[in-house]
Please model this.
Amino acid sequence: MKPKILKLSLVFLLFALIGVSCQDEEELPPLKDKQLTVSEIKSQGCKDHLKSTDTERYIELKAEGENRLWVKFVNARFNCCPGEITTNAFIKNDTLKVVFIEQYPGGCNCICDFDLECVIDSMENRKYNIGVYAHRSIYEEPNSKFTFNYSKGLDTTIKISNN
Model:
């Protein structure tokens, strides 16, 4: 009788462990499409004293407080006189999109680097696909696409190729 109880106990334990491991691999539901609140928008540029071939381009992400994400795009390239640069953030097709757009580009025939930053509210502790755009239009490809895990201790830098 004891060997039968032992076997049943082992089978039960095996099923319990399988159930727990399946729960650990369970993915979070997809993100719902929504507009996000953006604040603390800043733009520093035109860094015309730098040669565009010498500058490193990168994106910094840092958690602020419980649910805020600070985003900084260092050396984003725009027209030398881009007019107003606006910032927007939203979730579309399970991707967080951060968009810096030059609204009223001037007639300058030159390019220079800008540092752009903003803070996005209502972040959740989860994995995100992100696309960061610095263009005249949201219909162009993002300057950078990657995945990150948002949590209270987030502090990372993603290098962008100079292509």
